[in-house]
Write a structure and sequence with these properties.
The complex is a heterodimer of chains A (255) and B (283). With 255 residues, chain A is of the alpha/beta class. Chain A contains 8 helices and 10 strands. Helices cover 32% and strands 24% of the residues of chain A. The two termini of chain A are 35 Å apart. Chain B is an all-alpha fold and 283 residues long. Chain B has helices at residues 9-34, 39-59, 63-67, 70-91, 99-117, 123-130, 138-157, 159-167, 169-174, 179-201, 206-220, 223-249, 253-277. In chain B, helix 11 packs across helix 12 (223-249) and helix 11 packs parallel to helix 13 (253-277). Chain B is globular, with a radius of gyration of 19 Å. The chains are: A alpha/beta (255), B mainly alpha (283). Chains A and B meet through helix 2 of A and helix 8, helix 9 and helix 12 of B. Bound molecules: adenosine-5'-diphosphate and magnesium ion. Magnesium ion (MG) binds at residues 48-49, 87, 170-171 of chain A. Chain A: Belongs to the ABC transporter superfamily.
């Protein structure tokens, strides 16, 4: 595997964030080991999206440090190594005139650079990414004409097309029907196992997720648990409320 | 073919300018419409009117302004308005669309004051409001040509960035694309194109040429590139047919161009309906 093997894909040290005088994140310390499939869970409003945006530099935390593969955020330049599917990806303008191919091509724009055009190799890459998520039959369809689950796959392809080492997904299964959800998780799992992609999956749905991920972190303003899935399942027998503090809505998962 | 169009210099000027505008307006219009900022064109055209009225007013007392093509003053105001809109959008972060009525009413207010100071309406002003083929000068042709080159280079080299910024600003930021200055350049380009479309279609109708062809192509195009190409085809068709028929039927060119755009839009709606009703067999 890569030379980064023993540096964490993401390392967060003592990160705090507040809107005005309202704290949303308090002293978060957190690491995603290289090659992990980490599930970040927490109830609505627990600060998951805020944490992701701080990690990506979209929001500036008032204190704390973030680094990718050992490089501090402010000096990090290789953005093509990081794929991001935002929570907003499921509330985009569905009337936007863009084909699946065009949406996925956007994932390469940063890598290709200013004043340059996509070449044949890039076009090949775009088609490959579309194939990886199983959307080859829809290449020239408008994104707005697809189902929620299919759109989500297209956004994953957009995030994958630049060959990232780390993929961050913020609640990707909202609005996706239950049958597609487990398919979707299965696809993520194989990306993790076969391609060695490090994954950070944000969700408020604890049940289904824990069958697929290798690591779990529980967030509610503070980090309440952080470890591998086996440890998580041990602890969660005693109930989630301990890990979240309070106000928890646990989703049952039946086999 | 003997076409009277090409015998008269003023018609040549109008035709050349029209063809360039038929390309420029929809090219920028596509980005404006998909960002749901269609009204920006209206706001900027009204502030451009203020610039033109200011020039006409100043021309009454100063020979310098009298000799100046009012188009330039229009452009100065339009670019100023564009910068104003960008600033106001920062101030009203959560009410971004407020910037448009603010700039628009400022434009109308200023126009009315300048027009009254210039002692009211004259033919010049009327031409700017509704467009006039007779009013297009050689210097206008060159100005629009220069803007055409500028916008062409801008859209060609920043197409990727403009596309991703219109679709998803967050994604653009995460890919390391610096959206702020591209957005700034974009709105300046829009301001320039609006000012230069003025003589042909007129202030009150400029925004129609930016949005109607796009509205028509949105109904039937598949994907962004197609929307782009169809918008330009529709825009050109409207301008060329509009100029020719307004000449032969002795109609106002601006109005004719816009009504042909409306007709194209209606046809595209009808075509879409017809397509949808047809059963799709191969799926
Ligand atoms: N722009 C904002 N201004 C003020 N508060 C905000 C803003 N965005 C989010 N918040 C608050 O921050 C908290 C965390 O939000 P978020 O990170 O979106 O939670 P989650 O993704 O876990 O549902 C919420 O209580 C929310 O109300
Ligand atoms: Mg969230």
């Amino acid at each position: 595997m890569s030379k980064h093997d023993n540096t964490a894909a993401v390392k967060i040290e003592n990160l705090s964030f507040h809107y005005g005088d309202r704290y949303v994140l308090e002293r978060i310390n957190f690491e995603i080991p290289n090659g992990a499939f980490m599930g970040l869970v927490g109830p609505n409003g627990s600060g998951k999206s805020t944490l992701i945006k701080c990690i990506l530099g979209l929001l500036k935390p008032q204190s704390g440090k973030v680094s990718f593969f050992g490089i501090p955020l402010n000096r990090f330049k290789k953005w093509e190594e990081i794929g991001y599917v935002s929570q907003k990806a499921n509330s985009f303008n569905t009337a936007f005139p863009a084909t699946v191919y065009e949406v996925v091509s956007m994932g390469l724009f940063g890598k290709v650079g200013l004043f340059r055009f996509l070449n044949h190799k890039h076009k090949q890459k775009i088609l490959e990414a579309i194939e990886t998520v199983g959307m080859t039959n829809y290449v020239h369809r408008n994104i707005g004409e697809l189902s929620g689950g299919q759109q989500q796959r297209v956004f994953i392809a957009r995030a994958l097309v630049s060959d990232p080492k780390l993929l961050i997904l913020d609640e990707p299964t909202v609005g996706v029907d239950a049958a597609s959800v487990s398919n979707f998780y299965q696809m993520l799992k194989s990306l993790n196992e076969e391609k060695g992609l490090t994954l950070l999956l944000v969700t408020h749905d604890v049940g289904v997720m824990s069958d697929y991920v290798t690591h779990v972190a529980c967030l509610n303003k503070q980090l309440h648990f952080h470890g591998n899935t086996k440890e998580f399942k041990e602890v969660s027998k005693d109930g989630f409320s301990q890990m979240y503090g309070h106000h928890v809505h646990v989703l049952e998962h039946h086999h | 073919m003997s076409f009277p169009f090409f015998h008269y210099e003023f018609l040549q000027n109008a035709f050349l300018t029209g063809i360039m505008i038929g390309l420029l307006a929809p090219v920028l219009g596509v980005f404006i419409v998909v960002r749901r900022q269609s009204l920006i064109a209206d706001a900027l055209s009204h502030i451009t009117l203020a610039g033109i009225a200011a020039n006409l007013m100043l021309g009454r007392s100063s020979s310098f302004f009298q000799g100046l093509n009012p188009l330039y003053m229009g452009m100065v105001f339009s670019v100023g308005g564009a910068i104003g809109i960008e600033q106001l959008r920062k101030v009203y972060k959560h009410y971004e669309e407020l910037a448009i009525p603010i700039i628009m009413s400022a434009g109308i207010g200023l126009s009315v004051i300048f027009i009254s100071l210039a002692n009211g309406f004259n033919t010049d002003l009327f031409n700017y409001l509704f467009g006039s083929v007779l009013a297009v000068k050689k210097s206008d042709v060159w100005t629009v040509f220069f803007i055409l080159l500028l916008v062409f280079a801008f859209v060609l080299f920043l197409y990727k960035e403009l596309f991703v910024l219109s679709f998803d600003e967050e994604q653009a930021a995460v890919s390391g694309i610096k959206g702020k200055w591209i957005q700034f350049l974009f709105i300046i380009m829009v301001a320039l194109v609006i000012a230069s479309s003025m003589k042909i279609v007129g202030i009150l109708l400029v925004s129609a040429l930016m949005t109607l062809p796009v509205a028509a192509s949105l109904r039937i195009a598949n994907g962004f590139k197609q929307t782009f190409v169809l918008s330009v085809i529709f825009g050109e068709t409207a301008v060329i047919l509009g100029l020719i028929s307004s000449y032969y039927l002795n109609l106002a060119p601006g109005g004719t161009i816009v009504m042909i755009s409306v007709l194209i839009l209606l046809l595209s709606l009808a075509w879409k309906k017809w397509r949808v009703r047809k059963p799709i067999l191969n799926e």
